[in-house]
Design brief:
By secondary structure, the chain is α+β, with helices and mostly antiparallel strands. It is built from 6 helices and 16 strands. The strands form 4 sheets. Strands 10-16-15-14-13-12-11 form a 7-stranded antiparallel sheet. It has a 3-stranded antiparallel sheet with strand order 1-9-8, with no helix packed on it. The protein has a 3-stranded antiparallel sheet with strand order 2-3-4, with no helix packed on it. The two termini are 33 Å apart. This is Rieske 2Fe-2S domain-containing protein.
Length: 329
């Protein structure tokens, strides 16, 4: 995969890792195994055992006398440390590194990587700022979707699809892009979305709707190509809904959402579980529609409010450089 090399990707949040439990993930066409030892040290290696190609993520972790851990191959139980070295049966000597470890950038609970490529753009500090001020309430919406990363990004910056993909969930009647601020690979979109008033039956079914006003005033902050952030504010709570996008392969992408909250009312604590479920439904609906589109169809119709999609297309074509025109309005 040649597009977007040099971008930072958030691989996972520490809460998604269990101590000494291998986790498989894919990035830019390569598969890796990620694991965390009991002391919190995190390592990543290519997922194929250099002996006969078994998936190391199907193996187990072994704690060494020095407290470090190794990943054991499920085929022949060879144990590889964080640098890719092993000790062969009948030998007391450690081999040289047989696999190139994936370089990780660990910032608190956030595990980032450039996928083995030279960094072209920096990791923004915003997640560290959010973690310092807001309470983490969970991970939701994790999906591996059979779609290319461009189609995923276009969907996530399509301000019109709520009326179709999410029509029954939010019953948004109109979408108004009040302002779009283009800062190159960083942007802000301010939306006003009048919606139908939920019925009492709707609220009983999904109490999370209590946190949603008659008009959804959304502030979307975007970091191309890896992150979209929804800033939510109402009388019950302040919400940071952090969407992360990763290109697993040419036709496979991954998305997950980290949720942070600052409660202004005790009710906020009662509905946080419903908020996680709500966003999971949103991502599930996006995943289903993305799996049922013809991605290479020429676009012969333009709708209003496509400024976010235009921003994605421009940056995808020029990355890591920023090309004119500036789309602020």
């Amino acid at each position: 995969m040649k597009q977007l090399q040099g971008a930072p990707w958030l691989l996972t949040h520490r809460s998604m890792l269990k101590p000494n439990k291998p986790m498989k993930f894919s990035l830019l066409g390569n598969d890796y195994v990620l694991w965390q030892n009991t002391d919190g040290a995190i390592s990543a290696l290519p997922n194929a055992c250099p002996h006969m190609g078994a998936m190391l993520s199907e193996g187990w972790c072994v704690t060494k006398p020095d407290g470090n851990s190794a990943i054991a191959c499920p085929f022949h139980a060879l144990e590889f440390d964080h640098s890719g070295c092993t000790v062969l049966p009948g030998s007391n000597k450690e081999t040289k590194s047989l696999m190139q470890p994936l370089e990780l950038i660990i910032q608190g609970d956030f595990i980032w990587s450039y996928g083995g490529y030279e960094p072209k753009i920096p990791i923004p500090n915003i997640m560290n700022e959010i973690a310092a001020e807001y309470k983490f309430i969970g991970v939701t919406g994790e999906h591996s979707i059979r779609t290319d990363i461009l189609s995923l990004l276009l969907n996530m910056h399509d301000y019109n699809h709520q009326n179709g993909t999410h029509r029954e969930l939010f019953e948004i009647e109109q979408v108004h892009v009040k302002q779009f601020i283009d800062e190159g690979l960083h942007s802000h979109a301010y939306l006003s979305q009048p919606r139908k008033k939920p019925t009492f039956r709707d609220i009983l079914k999904n109490p999370g709707l209590l946190a949603m006003p008659k008009v959804l005033e959304a502030h979307l902050e975007n970091f191309f190509p890896f992150m979209g952030l929804m800033h939510g504010e109402n009388k019950l709570l302040s919400l940071k809904e952090c969407h992360f996008y990763l290109p697993e392969a040419d036709r496979q992408s991954r998305v997950f959402v980290l949720m942070y909250m600052k409660a202004h009312s005790p009710i906020a604590h009662l509905i946080k579980g419903n908020l996680l479920k709500l966003i999971n439904v949103v991502v599930d609906q996006d995943a289903k529609i993305l799996g049922k589109i013809y991605a290479n169809t020429p676009q012969r119709i333009k709708l209003n409010n496509e400024v976010g999609m235009n921003w994605v297309r421009r940056n995808f074509e020029s990355f890591p450089a920023v090309a004119e025109p500036n789309l602020s309005r």
